[in-house]
Write a structure and sequence with these properties.
alpha+beta, five-stranded mixed beta sheet, 7 strands
Length: 288
């Protein structure tokens, strides 16, 4: 299996393993699904942090309104008493006005936050550093973990308009948000290798050969954005190391220039009597 290091721009995303005989189109579709799946996990985790702090989301017609406006318009959150967290809740007002402020107790908060960390770790970019490929199954596992935690804390479920519930049901509307700019539709995705766009109708081996131990950097982006930036010759860490080496070399040269030409006379190897003293056993005598 060939290992592809998928990047978006200059940012590392994940490792993906694929057969050399696989079509580029098949690999690209799978890579795009994993990429979008990781974004979904990230969005759910972000909302679950808010859920643990401020409870479920308010209905769309109440979001953003002040308490006075809600009272004046006689609006009611009909889901507040239906979606109650296990173990009860305490009020923690959401200053943004998105959630109802019914914060779960500390035990339930811990379940939500611990699961968020576990899900993030499964699809983390650190997996690439550890040499662990990310699969569609791993993305599904992360989402199932998050779903399970929400079910434990909210046995009656979340309101259908809650962003977390919409993500679980794949009914989320990202239009007009920053998240919508990050998502890439499989039909609008392109894969680049070595500064060239990979043709969907060709196979992996047409670009990387048939060596199953090959590892290559490929870049994912939307069609029509042009060629992505090339990989730098040196990584940031390598560049810092090189600069440090050059600085040390420069300091050594400065020191040598400041030394006198006859300073070597002070060296033990330049002492004509050192051999005689060594035979007499007087090599390292300390006089006090």
């Amino acid at each position: 299996m060939v290992q592809l290091h998928v990047k978006k721009g200059d940012e590392s995303q994940f490792l993906y393993e694929v057969s050399t005989d696989s079509l580029i189109e098949s690999a690209l579709n799978e890579i795009t699904v994993i990429y979008n799946g990781r974004l979904k996990v990230s969005r759910i985790c972000m909302e679950m942090e808010e859920l643990a702090t401020h409870g479920p989301m308010l209905p769309p017609n109440i979001i953003g309104l002040t308490d006075e406006q809600v009272t004046e318009l006689k609006l009611v959150d009909e889901w507040a008493d239906k979606c109650v967290p296990s173990g009860g809740w305490t009020f923690n007002k959401d200053d943004i006005g998105r959630r109802n402020g019914r914060q779960p107790n500390e035990k339930m908060q811990l379940i939500l936050r611990k699961t968020v960390e576990e899900a993030k770790a499964i699809v983390s970019k650190k997996q690439a550093q550890a040499g662990v490929p990310v699969t569609r199954k791993m993305v599904k596992e992360a989402i199932d973990l998050l779903r399970g935690a929400v079910t434990i804390v909210y046995p009656m479920g979340l309101p259908p308009h809650d962003a977390i519930q919409e993500e679980f049901e794949n009914t989320e509307d990202l239009s007009g948000t920053q998240a919508s700019l990050e998502v890439i539709e499989p039909s609008m995705a392109s894969l680049w290798f070595s500064g060239k766009e990979m043709n969907r109708t060709k196979k992996i081996c047409d670009y990387l050969g048939r060596n199953d131990k090959t590892r290559a950097v490929v870049k994912l982006q939307k069609i029509g954005q042009g060629a992505p930036s090339r990989e730098p010759v040196m990584t940031e860490a390598q560049q810092k190391e090189w600069m440090l080496h050059a600085y040390r070399k420069q300091e050594e040269l400065k020191k040598l220039e400041q030394d006198n030409d006859d300073q070597y006379h002070n060296s033990s190897w330049a002492d004509s009597r050192s051999l005689k003293r060594s035979f007499q056993g007087l090599g390292n005598v300390s006089w006090k």
